[in-house]
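input
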Amino acid sequence: MKQLLFLLLIGLQPVFGQQDLERANTYFERAFYSDAIPLYEQIVSTNRSKQVLQNLADAYYRTYDLHSAARWYKTLTSRFENTVDASYYFKLNQSLKAIGKYEEAETALQQYYQQLGDSVSIDKARNENLYLRSIKAIGERFTIQNLPLNTPASEFGAIQVDSNLIYTAAAKNNTSLKRRYRWNNQNYLDIYLHPIDKISESDLFSQNIPGEVNTKMHEGTFAITKDRKTLYFTRNNFINGKKGTDDKKVSNLKIYKAERIDGEWSNITELPFNSDSFSTAHPALNENGTKLYFASDRPGGFGSFDLYSVAIISDTSYGNPVNLGSLINTDKKEQFPFLDTQNNLYFASNGHPGFGLLDIFVSKYESGKHQAPDNIGLPVNSGYDDFSISFQTPQEGYFSSNRPAGKGSDDIYSFTETKPLIIKELDDEPQITANPSDENKTSEDDIIVQKDSKSFIKTQQIHFDYDLWYLRKDVRNRLEVVVRMMKKYPDMKIEVGTHTDNRGDDRYNLELSQKRANSVKEFLVDNGISGERITAVGYGESEPLVECATENDCSEQDHEQNRRCEFVILDWE
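output
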């Protein structure tokens, strides 16, 4: 009987496997990515078809588990190479950037251009790398702070309006009216008010925006007129209690208008250039309120979401939407426009050269038109999604990011600009070679040094950029001396000790420093050193070279001194 039962179960396994695959694919097609992932993870142990790998990698990518996304995109592109769509090499590039693997990301970008059949792919990848080096060479242009109102769920899209900060967040109260959004298993989004005089307080002071704006569907980013009488906002295709969908049962995004009546937003109407068939979202107004800017994936664009403007003729009349053109738009995403008081256009994009996923760019308004955009730099931009910037003064405002340093999902940050955006063109960098560079041609009493009863391998200073753990190319050059010494003395064992400055909390800094130590160890292993000879230790902010009572007590140079790496010799026979 047991044998019969065993044979019966064996016979049913392919059926169960097929059922799981069908269920996973259904979840994926409906954008229930959090539900699809565990099913695909079971399936992929026996089924590594192109479709399964694509869907699993995409599900991780869209839920921002970018370590897992990079892993499966690498598996996909290595197994199927030229038969996968070029977009998967681009998503591999973005995932690798986010986790700090910039050399691999550059290779993936070259492969992306090659898949497109671009004959100058290497030059394009190199030019993008040089541009980003020029941006990084400026240094940190902003000070930033994570707002206390953030939670482990999503908060983004903040704009200060009079005495309130208005922002979008996963529903915080009356959640019984909202279903879970199965893309990420969070509540659907609503729009909230938070008093500016309580900005240092938690989200307990946040309230639903008054009136009829919030519903059981998503409500998102918004724009408000100077007279405070009209609110433009994003919502799923839903009005008067009825949900609209396209032919695939997808409820696309639309822009709606609300009027302020007796202190509440009501009389909700749909703008005439929406459609059930595509999304129209993220409204923004120019300085004099004569144009509405927005993002849309409507037909006729350059690809994915483009930015458009439309003339506001009257309260009920609008011109025809105009695409902002190829100087602004790419074949990737351009979203979340915002115009400052000088009509400079800020927006998020993953199509212009960036540090990973969405970065924020500025297109200066000069001579009556918007100019070629520039990446606004660090640390507002990071390897993750950075978007939805707004200005309260010419140097201060808010932006949103889902970087791991936050409280979870999307967070709102305040910022203050401290340096102008002046980009200097840099020459190309020398490539690492098998021979040590001139800076490493020093004697061994110079390389092995004693300090506090410990022996160190002395290198030129090795620092990390703020809030990042990738190895800059100047750092990789300086690590060649460590590679050389460990190859010369095969019994030598070392500790890679890395450190942070004191910005951020203790736990985050400890995790960040460990990522830095792991990056250095990975470089040494990639250059022929056994991992068993290397101990990687992150010390966080516990051992500063420069003591800083608070983060504002030290200069940026002091903070960089603390963001360092050291090599302690543990054993040397």
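quick obs: The two ends are 65 Å apart (CA to CA).
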